Amino acid sequence: PGRIHHGAGTAILFVEDEETLLAAVSTMLQREGFSVIRTADGSAAVSYLRLCGDSIGTLILDVILPGASGREVLEEARRTRPDIPVIVTSGCTQNTIDSVFEGLHIDHLLRKPYRIAALLDLLRGLIPHS
């Protein structure tokens, strides 16, 4: 069986523990032509970054996750792909977000609840896609 080639760094790794949000947003992104790898668990996201980091073009990351924390996922992303664009999604206060990710670079913060259109606008600015 042949390996699926996404093209280098075009997939979105979407890490979100709210299953309904994860499913709905992933479906919408795929409809818009994005390749989406989704997980509700921080530890799974860390493993994916270690194994397949090259296929990831953008990370969409929730702050509070089961398994590895949002910070641990971001640290792994920065280790494997220092240049990867990161969109953090959160309903937490700015102080919480600042303390969780202290010293780590975040490209964009998207407050929950967010509109899919707002996420799409951000992604279109970050990812060249067909």
What's this, in brief?
This protein has 130 residues and is an alpha/beta fold. The protein has helices at residues 19-31, 42-52, 70-80, 94-100, 116-126; strands spanning 11-15, 36-39, 56-62, 86-90, 108-111. Strands 2-1-3-4-5 form a 5-stranded parallel β-sheet, with helices on both faces.
Question: Helices, strands, pairings?
Answer:
Blueprint: E1 11-15, H1 19-31, E2 36-39, H2 42-52, E3 56-62, H3 70-80, E4 86-90, H4 94-100, E5 108-111, H5 116-126
Percentage of residues in helical conformation: 40-55%
On the 0 to 100 scale, the average pLDDT is 91
What's the end-to-end separation, in Å? 26 Å
The fraction of residues assigned to DSSP E strands is 15-25%
Architecture overview:
With about 130 residues, this protein is an alpha/beta fold. The protein has helices spanning about 20-30, 40-50, 70-80, 95-100, 115-125, and strands spanning about 10-15, 35-40, 55-60, 85-90, 110. It has a five-stranded parallel beta sheet, with helices on both faces. Helix 2 (about 40-50) runs parallel beside helix 3 (about 70-80). The model is unreliable at about 1-5 (pLDDT under 50).
Label this structure with key terms:
single chain, 130 residues, alpha/beta, 5 strands
